[in-house]
Amino acid sequence: MPKSLSPDQIKTSQDLIKNAQHIVVTSHKNPDGDAAGSAFSMSLFLRALGKMSPQSYQMDCQNFCNGCLDMTT
């Protein structure tokens, strides 16, 4: 079973996101729909926080992610 993040790790993550202006979101090589959807959702969440958040994938996933913002392959 995966270990949960400690409160210190959560705080560190929050601080890193809060202080960053540009955060690239990516996934594993040849992502499936779940991975691409998760990356897309995270990017939208970060944009809602006012961050610049392009997505980067290691394949051409335009077919199942049509309409994703700023997609880089």
Question: Would you spell out the secondary-structure blueprint of this structure?
Answer:
Blueprint: H1 7-19, E1 25-26, H2 33-48, E2 55-56, E3 71-72
Parallel strand pairs: 1-2, 2-3
Radius of gyration, Cα only, in angstroms? 14 Å
Query: What fraction of the residues are assigned to beta strands by DSSP?
Result: 5-15%
**So what's the oligomer here?**
single chain
Which geometry do the CA atoms define? globular
Q: Roughly how much helix do the residues carry, as a percent range?
A: 25-40%
What is the overall number of helices?
2
Order of helices and strands: HEHEE
Quickly give the structural class: mainly alpha
β-strand number: 3
Order of the strands making up the biggest sheet: 1-2-3
- Structural domain count: 1
Average pLDDT rating? 82
CA distance, first residue to last residue: 33 Å
Low-confidence stretches: none
The profile of the biggest β sheet is:
3 strands, parallel
Summary keywords:
single chain, 40% helix, mainly alpha, 3 strands, 2 helices, 73 residues, 3-stranded parallel sheet
Describe the structure.
- The protein is mainly α.
- The protein has one domain.
- Helix content is 40%, strand content 8%.
- The chain has two helices and three strands, in the order H-E-H-E-E.
- The protein has helices spanning 7-19, 33-48, and strands at residues 25-26, 55-56, 71-72.
- Strands 1-2-3 form a three-stranded parallel sheet, with helices on one face.
- The longest helix has 16 residues, at 33-48.
- 11% of the residues are buried.
